[in-house]
Amino acid sequence: MPSGLSQFLRYEFLDECLGIEMTICAQELNKGRQYSDFDWPTFKSRLMPLLITAKKFGLWVPDEKMIGAGISVATLINYLQNVGRMLREGHYAEAKQTALQAKEAIAEIVAEDEKTARLTGSSHQTGGAPGGQSEWAIL
Fold first, then answer.
1. Cβ atoms of residues 84 and 19 within 8 Å
2. Do 96 and 56 form a contact (C-beta atoms < 8 A)?
3. Count of domains for the chain
4. How far apart are CA 8 and CA 17, in angstroms?
5. By CB neighbour count within 10 A (0-12 exposed, 13-18 middle, 19+ buried), where does 96 fall?
6. How far apart are CA 118 and CA 7, in angstroms?
7. For each of the chain's 139 residues, which pLDDT tens digit applies?
8. Range of the domain at 47
């Protein structure tokens, strides 16, 4: 087998595995957000390496600041489900495009949250659950 083809197949397999892991994380997060005692720090310790791997594959990923301060749980789940599904199905270019579309949407959410925080005099705390801890109890 030519080395170029074997490398292509290896990346194809890794993309698929990454996609599976992303969709599993989305499912776990979706189930976990139903409980006020969801263990966000443990989940985050699994999520962040996954996002680092996705970034190494050339995909845009929300950074820790965005996850801790601005985006909602539903937005994070949506990102993981959609990008993960595209990768799982072998559509790398579409996954990359979907991730970039998420980047634009998340940037708007974060900017709006920061604007609201400036107007109200409140500040975001980074490092917590997406959307703040109160969202976990509500959802």
1. yes
2. no
3. 1
4. 14
5. middle
6. 49
7. 455 655 545 556 678 899 999 999 999 999 888 877 778 888 888 899 999 999 998 999 988 777 766 578 888 999 999 999 999 999 999 999 999 999 988 888 778 877 888 888 765 444 445 554 433 322 2
8. 3-138
